[in-house]
Amino acid sequence: MDYLEITGPVTLHGSVKISGAKNAALPIIAMSLLANNTVRIGNMPAVVDIKTLLKLIENLGGTFSFSDENTVEINTCCLTNTKATYDIVKTMRASILVLGPLLSRFGHCEVSLPGGCAIGQRPIDLHLKALEQMGAKITIHAGYVQAEAPNGLQGTHIIFDKITVTGTANIVMAAALANGITRISNAAREPEVVQLCEILRDSGVVITGIGTAELSIEGTKGKLIDIVAFDVIPDRIEAGTYLCAAGISNSTVTLQNVRPDHLEAVTGKLEEMGFKIDTTENTMTIHPNSSIKPVTIITQEYPAFPTDMQAQFMALATQADGTSTIEERLFENRFMHVSELQRLGADIKLNGHTATVTGPSALSGTDIMATDLRASSAMVIAANIAEGVTQVHRIYHLDRGYENLEKKLGNLGAKIERLSE
Ligand code: EPU
After folding, report:
1. Threshold 0.85, pTM exceeds
2. Per-residue pLDDT of the chain (421 residues; tens, 9 = 90+)
3. 313/244 Cα distance (integer angstroms)
4. Quick one: which atom of ligand 1 is closest to the CA of 169?
5. CA 94 to CA 112: how far, in whole Å?
6. 77, 117, 197, 244: which one is catalytic?
7. Best probe residue, ligand 1, of 52, 122, 371, 400 (max atoms within 8 Å of C-beta)
8. Is-contact 266 154, C-beta < 8 A?
9. Using CA atoms, how far apart are residues 78 and 73, in angstroms rounded to an integer?
């Protein structure tokens, strides 16, 4: 098993190119199941989760190519199989994204239930309830969601009880081939959902309300869609992670290929902490800060502060002058990094869904264990400023969502090496 060996403390400098967004690319790959043509997608991040979903598409009978230039071409014309099996779904919950498109295209499908998750229970009840409202008959049998809609799905009014990102994406895709108009209220407004809707719109599907909580999608009555070629939007969470890596190490770092407008909640908090950030249309430069101010963070749905940046800000808060509070509202168990940051010397107290972080703490290198994707990146950020050597184990979590992490950080001046146990 690979691990990262990081020697600190370091100051970073230079620029880093941000990759395409994993969480935008995943629904887009699933969307290729609705296509009449070969779908060409640029700026595709070469990370494990993407390869997992492409493998699932292949298992269903689709074909794909993935070029060295981060371009993927997917063809699903001759799909033979509509069963997403446990062996793949258990490794990545986002596999549930094939449920909506498969059901709307074929009128039946089976998708394994994903099972447990490190950061919280993460049920899929809202996806299933919405599909039932669209006329699907859904049964759970032997660990599988079995869905049928022999006459196609029927547009209706879905009101999500809770905002769900992949739930919204699933229903948008199901609605795209349905009969009639589907209205979605309380839809997710994340840029990743917006991009999915924009691609479908640019491909001829009539969608209104894009970027708002009220979406309306006019289905094609089962007619497959000619999907336009496009590039995946930059990964706002990867970008935010590098901003935190720069901030904690008092560095000047420039991000290239970034969308500053997708990061306003994150940059707002960095500015509250005293950092100065210069932006252009597609770059951001963060400058050092002589005294990091403590901050209050509450994770919420977009456009508020993202849960996927909570762990990285906790690492950063360990160096603030005073006490920060971080409240996690989306996932009930997304604090697994706390005990690992404590092993490095952080002063963090947990009380239910709120962590209190008192800084600045002198961190010192030791062995720590990656627990989930974003928690792992927080550990790497902290290790960069810890005195001595830190070994971050179980980095397969990082490989799921960060493209070339050690190379990118190494180019910025980090002393980081991937080794094998
Ligand atoms: N929820 C339900 N029922 C459902 C669906 C969701 O109760 O049917 C709850 C969840 O348990 C959670 C809340 O609703 O408490 C929000 O979950 P959501 O469905 O929005 O999360 P997701 O779609 O499963 C995506 C990202 C996550 C990110 C969350 C929140 C992808 C592939 N995943 O997950 O990203 O944390 O939205 O923004 O887009 C990551 O990249 O590390 C990651 C975990």
Report:
1. yes
2. 999 999 999 999 999 999 999 999 999 999 999 999 999 999 999 999 999 999 999 999 999 999 999 999 999 999 989 999 999 999 999 999 999 999 999 999 999 998 777 888 889 999 999 999 999 999 999 999 999 999 999 999 999 999 999 999 999 999 999 999 999 999 999 999 999 999 999 999 999 999 999 999 999 999 999 999 999 999 999 999 999 999 999 999 999 999 999 999 999 999 999 999 999 999 999 999 989 999 999 999 999 999 999 999 999 999 999 999 999 999 988 999 999 999 999 999 999 999 999 999 999 999 999 989 999 999 999 999 999 999 999 999 999 999 999 999 999 999 999 999 8
3. 7
4. 23
5. 11
6. 117
7. 122
8. no
9. 15
- Residue 122 CA, ligand 1 centroid: distance in Å: 7
Q: Tell me how far apart the alpha carbons of residues 34 and 170 are, in angstroms, rounded to a whole number.
A: 12
Catalytic: 117? yes
> From the alpha carbon of 374, which atom of ligand 1 is closest?
42
What are the beta bridge partners of residue 348?
357
115 and 90 Cβ atoms separated by less than 8 Å: yes
Determine how many CB atoms are found less than 10 A away from the CB of residue 321: 14
What are the backbone dihedrals phi and psi of residue 402, each rounded to the nearest 5 degrees, phi first?
-115, 115
- Closest atom of ligand 1 to CA, residue 94: 32
Q: What pairs with residue 369 in β-bridges?
A: 393
Contacts of 141 (CB under 8 A, 6+ apart): none
CA of 217 to the centre of ligand 1 (A): 22
Integer angstrom CA distances of residue 156 from 89, 189, 325: 28, 20, 42
Q: How far is the CA of 69 from the centre of ligand 1 (A)?
A: 29
* Binding pocket residue ranges, ligand 1, CB within 6 Å: 23, 26, 94, 120-127, 162, 164-167, 306-308, 330-331, 373-374, 401
